[in-house]
Protein 1
Amino acid sequence: MSGTPSKNLAITFPQFDERELENVKACLESKWVTQGPFSAEFERRFADRHELNSALTTTSCTAALHLACLALELGPDDEVIVPAFTWITSANCAEYVGAKVVFADIDLETFNFDPEALKAAITPRTRAIVAVHLFGLAAPMDEILAITAERGIHVIEDAACAVGSTYRGKPVGGLGDIGCFSFHPRKVITTGEGGMVTTNDAELANRIGCLRNHGASQPPGPQSAPGRPYSMGAFETLGFNLRMSDIQAAVGVAQMDKLDGLLDQRRLRAERYTQLLTAREMNDLKPPTAPDGCGHSYQSYVVRLRVGGQLRRNQVMDCLADEGIQTRPGTHAVHRLGYYVNKYDIRAEDFPNAKTAEETTITLPIFPGMTDADQDRVVDSLRHALHKSGQAAA
Ligand SMILES: Cc1ncc(COP(=O)(O)O)c(C=O)c1O
């Protein structure tokens, strides 16, 4: 696809067509808008696509992570290891249940856990780790599972960015105990806001279903077993309302129809970016890598400035913004955010790779439907910005 470049290039945007509109219309016309047939279909299709026994819709990936920590019964005596470079809720979920977050540094090549750092962070109190598949690249699960299995440590996969990503040919989300996905508009598929909790363990799935639904032992709605008219459920657990609506699930079902096409287009654009950056010898930038055996979703295409620090990175981003090209830093070094600094007295330098990643990464626009001309424009602008900022720094 070539064509005239779009005037303002957003970092990404959702892909909707008549299918979402038709499903939402059908949902509204049915007058059943809380969990119902579309939720059941979305869950079944998501589970099938990711080769999982159970998938449960929820209001966000943050809610999914919270449910995961509750279902695993993590609490104040427990430590949960989280990569220091990720979105804040990968860590917050442990704090929600009173557990202590322990950070481990990342590998700058992949932006995921450095297995050696993870091993070093383990203590007798470690009960779980959050394996983040950042930007859609699977975490080093072989190493992680080898470390955790022998110590009986639970693995929560934060697959917020990793719908459709694979590790050694297997979809992520069922490699650990519980997987958590996001359908925020910046993700591979979207329902506005929304998430999915996945597991192959029937008991965990039951517990999550109950916690998601006020602690009720029977879900309400058309999929419940027929009960007596006066039946109100048992409510033996302190639960929450973290249910996705059927209106959102109607959008999710339509998005599942196009998932493989969306992934193909993202991968194609990512490959082309890498080719362009290499062919034009833009060596100050390091393109993202996918180790052998990892099927990257390229939810985000994140480059790292190899030469120069945060100041130059910001100059480059400013130059692109002046040309109508939106970019964002990769994500946070969570150990530097106020809540964690204040609570745990952590220094920025304690996790140097996470600090470097926060200061030197740039997420470039990538979305299905992006044209060659759009991409050429981003790369031309980047080249110009690198040149300009390089001179300013000299
Ligand atoms: C790695 C990671 N985890 C969790 C989340 C939270 O997802 P949600 O916005 O659906 O709560 C995000 C969102 O950007 C994320 O990138």
Protein 2
Amino acid sequence: MSKRASAILFLLAAGSTLLPGPALTATPGQARLENIRYYSYPEYTRVVIDLSREIRISEKVLRGGEGGRLFFDLKDCRFALNYPRERMNEIRIAAGNLQRIRIGKFQTQTIRVVFDFDRIGKYNRFYLTSPFRIVFDIYRQDEFVSHARQQASDDPPPATAKVPGEGVPPGTAGGGTPSIARQLGLGVHRIVIDPGHGGKDPGTVNRALGLKEKDVTLDIGKRLNAILNEHKDLEVILTRPRDEYVPLEERAAIANSNHGDVFISIHTNSAPRLSARGVESYYLNMTTDPRAMEVAAQENAMSTKSMADMRTILDQILRNSKISESRIFSQCLQGSMVANLRSKYDAIEDLGVKKAPFYVLLGAQMPSALVEVSFLSHAAEARRLGTPEYRQAVAAGLYLGIIHFIQSLGK
Ligand SMILES: [Zn+2]
């Protein structure tokens, strides 16, 4: 880790946050602790604390002794009725240098949370909203990486997910390392499909036609799943197999914990300019293109201001992302989607491959892309998106793009 990266982490840990202060107004009444979840990545462990309303914390770090601990108080807070009972007192983690999380009533109105470490190192704390969450990314100490056993999250994976295997996946040691697929020379096996939005988050909506993005993306995802399932040697994982809400940061985590080889997030576009139409594909990176920034802000459900604050976090994570492979993956998807749609439909505009900071792609440890398969805000494109034929043509185009990418790996 560079000196600069350490400095950024220190600043973040010292209290700088993702979101600007004024956007978060305190709600009266007690907060409820809904859940504490964690995801273990090869390089860091992410702990997510779900709360019913905003609570700002100031954590304290105690070094020395048995390896160190970090603790903080959730003031004016109680357990939600549906808080998982088995996580009421202690959550055993034993991933990297974080051993366990202990939770307890500190005073009548306060819940104290304690992280126990083998050895405390760098970490990064930030807040997310809608719903409000406190997130800790706890980085592994170098000396632990070599012998730390890869451990899956204790959250049950989604219905169609496979249980992750033993062993640390290769290709995770840094930006310059070849991907799993390339290293093994076996091509891509496990494809993670992420139908955008779901449940309480409908995505963009075309009211005239009564069409919701979440329904279109789920149908296209299922169609793509069905096509891919005809290949014996390909395995598919859907981040959501039904109409349900899955937070953005969990989607890449599902791909990581299931050791996906590629990750594709499916969306439909929308623009204030109603004549905007076409197909575009994105990979994760910073951008100066205002239109790309708007698309990302919309998909991230964040203001562009908050997105600018995201930069420090991105700088950190981009170092370990598969940017060049994700660009190639996006190009394969875009090219095949456009070609397949043009073989059946007229006026398919190719908006090309772009980069933007999509929160859903953040932390994905495999080549990843977000596709905007047409505009729900464009009358004619929305009518097409409402038909099974068009959705099938999109799915077939994505399938051809995945195959194209697999073939490109063999060259
Ligand atoms: Zn979307």
